[in-house]
Amino acid sequence: MELREGDVLLRPIRMRDQKAWQEASRRNRDWLRRWEATVPPSPPGRITGSRPSYRQMVRYLRSEASAGRMLPFAVLYRDQLVGQLTVGGITWGSMCSANIGYWIDESVAGRGIMPTAVALAVDHCFLALGLHRIEVCIRPENGPSRRVVEKLDFRQEGMRPRYLHIDGDWRDHLVYALTAEEVPEGLMQRWRKR
Fold first, then answer.
1. 121: exposed, middle or buried (C-beta count within 10 Å: 0-12, 13-18, 19+)?
2. The whole model's pTM is what?
3. Mean pLDDT of the region 67-95
4. Neighbours of 153 (CB within 10 A)
5. Segment among 35-49, 71-85, 93-107, 176-190 with least mean pLDDT
6. Beta strands in 78-142 (DSSP E)
7. Taking a C-beta distance cutoff of 8 angstroms, is the pair 174, 140 a contact?
8. Domain boundaries, the chain
9. Is 3-192 in CATH node 3.40.630.30?
10. Given Cys at both, which of 23, 64, 105, 165 links 40, Cβ 3.0 to 4.6 Å?
């Protein structure tokens, strides 16, 4: 499955993306470090897990996608891999919700690529999958990421104290959300009008 709007393409992340993904990750290490999830210290007597290799990460993402719990996308701009967007925590039943996380190469940040990618993913979740609610949780000090959801008119709902382990400690996150009823014509339609 591929989702496209102009020069922005979302498609499943692939094993053959390894070189481009690792290069973008390396180039943006300092820029992304403050926002990337880290593995918390293990309790005494428990073996600490290490960061997975690229191949292990892709295998895990594919497994979760096959189980219907996740949609892992590579973000391409003008056919170059410039980031990643993951729809995770997909829950069915009475909740029908998911969350979205993303990162983008600093060299193309601010060009509307990530708002477009998020709008594509949200529309797919609402219009094709039938989900009802999407959340994006962002550290309060991550201004660029907050601007993405604010441009798309996500509603800020509050704070989740010490929500995720990021950059070596448990960090607070602001919760932004959107429901299908808020964008009956689709989020991309709203984004195009801006």
1. buried
2. 0.94
3. 97
4. 14
5. 35-49
6. 80-91, 97-104, 133-138
7. yes
8. 3-192
9. yes
10. 165
